Automatic annotation (TrEMBL):
Family note: Belongs to the glycosyl hydrolase 43 family.
Protein name stated in the entry: Carbohydrate binding module (Family 6)
Entry keyword set: Carbohydrate metabolism, Glycosidase, Hydrolase, Polysaccharide degradation, Xylan degradation
Gene source species: Leeuwenhoekiella marinoflava DSM 3653
Segment of the intact protein contained: 16 to 323 of 452
Hydrolase as UniProt keyword: yes
Keyword flag Nucleotide-binding: no
Domain of life: Bacteria
Length: 308
């Protein structure tokens, strides 16, 4: 029996399979988790926080040079598939930008489209790029230029049941535009999403659909730390009505939160982040997941973070 367990543990270690509860990944800092389900497997595309130094980025600020992807078939054992894209692979960014912020990934006709923000070498401003791969774990090849007519961060792509894809992102406001069928170009002018809170700042939009309801969810900061909120509508382009709070602001001072919501094996989950592994520095974050429950009228019950 002992030999069997030793063999299993060795197999898992050699295959880079990690076991964890919240926070899900414990051997590196991860943030901004976009979870997607492809072929009965959950893939998480997070940001990868590292530490800035005098010669690497801006000390005290966010520092990200690459992306890893993690997968799991049971939400407990996570496999790290390693680096899927680095700033050096993106010709339109500065290889010293360290600004590979919150990404997303969707699948269409057997190809995987990985969306990421980073700073443009030309203007220094955040733009959104696309990299395409044949598998959810890459390799991903970046397009030569960022998506035209998009300035900002936190890309989120939603594909409706009729095949129309929409890009949501944040900057001064939260914006949306339709995407062309190639998923690399806008098919409509960006519009500012109306009827959202006027006070404070919103970012990190994430759109999903359930029972004909379209949920626009977003972190919103009014004071010091972000609260996850949502607005509902009956169309991916809105109009949306602010409906409620998904998760309260952090009581322990982690400024950002950033999330995604997916259904897996008939249960809905909220993926989000906190600074569990770095309590004194909130730019080194860790991703978490918790179950999410809907009320009969489609509204969402507030998620209370669990640590285990
Ligand atoms: O990870 C960098 C930034 O912090 C993200 O783009 C925001 O959504 C916030 O989580």
């Amino acid at each position: 029996l002992c030999r069997y367990y030793m063999g299993t543990i060795l197999f898992l270690l050699l295959n880079n399979v990690l076991f964890a509860q919240n926070p899900l990944i414990q051997d590196q800092f991860t943030a901004d988790p976009t979870a997607r389900v492809f072929d009965d497997t959950v893939y998480i595309y997070p940001s990868h926080d590292i530490m800035c130094t005098e010669d690497k980025g801006k000390p005290g600020w966010f520092c990200m040079e690459d992306y890893h992807v993690f997968s799991s078939k049971n939400l407990t054992a996570w496999k790290d598939h390693g680096v899927i894209l680095t700033q050096k692979d993106v010709s339109w960014t500065d290889p010293q930008a360290y600004s590979m912020w919150a990404p997303d990934c969707i699948e269409k006709e057997g190809l995987y489209y990985f969306y990421f923000p980073t700073k443009s070498k030309e203007s220094g401003a955040f733009k959104i790029g696309v990299a395409v791969g044949k598998s959810p774990v890459g390799p991903f090849i970046s397009e030569k230029n960022p998506i035209e007519n998009v300035d900002g961060i936190d890309p989120n792509v939603f594909m409706d049941t009729d095949g129309q894809a929409y890009l949501y992102w944040s900057g001064k406001n939260i914006y949306l535009a339709k995407l062309k069928p190639n998923l690399k170009e806008l098919a409509s002018e960006p519009v500012v999403i109306a009827n959202l809170p006027e006070e404070g700042h919103m970012e990190g939009p994430f759109m999903f659909e359930r029972n004909g309801n379209y949920y626009l969810t977003y972190p919103h900061v009014e004071d010091k730390t972000e609260r996850l909120e949502y607005a509902m509508g009956d169309n991916p382009m809105g109009p949306f009505q602010v409906t409620g709070v998904l998760m309260d602001e952090s009581a322990t001072g982690c400024w950002t939160n950033h999330h995604s919501i997916v259904a897996f094996k008939k249960q809905w989950y909220l993926f989000y982040h906190h600074n569990d592994l770095s309590p004194d520095f909130d730019k080194n974050r860790s991703i978490r997941a918790d179950s999410l429950t809907f009320n009969p009228d489609g509204s969402i019950q507030k998620v209370v973070p669990t640590l285990r």
